[in-house]
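Two records follow; treat each independently.
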Amino acid sequence: MNSKYNSKNKKSDLPQRQQRIFDFINSQEAGVLACVDPNCEPHATVVYYLIDPKDFSISFLTKVETRKYDNLMRNNHAFMVVFDVASQTVAQIIGEAKKFTNADRINELAARFTKTSLKVSKGKIAPISKLEQSEYVGFKITPKQIRIAFYNTSKGGDYKALFDTIESFELKPGY
């Protein structure tokens, strides 16, 4: 598989396959979050995110009164896609989103995402910061499944041969 996303000089208790998947998701700044609206129509938006190395949960921020907030409060099923154009690597994360309101955690994420946005966009703040809607809230997606494909290393083949998958039971601490 792709060595670009292998850990360097890190001691990890994760199996090599899980570490490679974590390293890829952790190396990207943003992904596309998909959910459904009240009419079961799809809704997708780009979010900055952070992955937790313990359980691979994904945290992101939004604001109350946004469509993504309303959708996730009605139906917590979430699907996230992380893609790297240069390596043609894609990760698909399926899970359930749960709101959190811990001010310290929200401030920590907001500071991190602002720093990332300023770095990658040449001085522009994150899009969510430009919305005047109400206060920030956080969501944490607990994955049920993570699938990843490193297309640039594949010689092709069937669909199952291209993807490597982690199921939720493999993401439990101590597994």
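The next record belongs to a different protein.
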Amino acid sequence: MTNVGIILQIMFISIGMVALGLILNKFLGINLQSARELRDKALNIQERMRTAQATGNAQEMFAMQQESTALMKQMMKKQLIPSCIRCVVFLGIFALIGVFYINYASGILPFEIPLLGDGWIAVYFLFSIGFSLLIWGVKKLYRKLTGKVDARSKISKEILQVLSPTSQGTASSFQIPSVSEETEKLDSWKDRIKNNS
């Protein structure tokens, strides 16, 4: 088979792999409903944290910090497990492609790409990156022209902003006051009452 025929075959395989990646992202990624639920939980935790800070309740603040950490772990799990599944699927398909094109490990392209060579792997990565960038650019252009926003990524950013300590105002907002600070506040409060009476 000629090099042009091999390049065309690899091009169609890379188009199929990019399409498969989009399909897996659609079905295995965080859906809009679960992203909204996570955002609502994060906003609830943020409100309860503000209330605990306002009242100076150290136990409640510690509980909110633990809830915030658990929610962050839950969100990461929902993002990492589908990514791992996609990775395993792609490695399996990539290994199959390697078996079929083992005889074309070099010499397909008239030039060599650093780290990838001039064989089927280089051709695959060129087409894969090219098609992925093309789809990304078309989506970006479409959103810019229509004014639509990717709701899932927007909600994910909101969740991360809500759960990050700096979103509460200062970086120290999640810190729990020490016992000496608590007794100092109580002492000063008692002193104020004594002075007023």
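Discussion point: Residues 3-196 form one domain. How would you locate this feature using only the token line?
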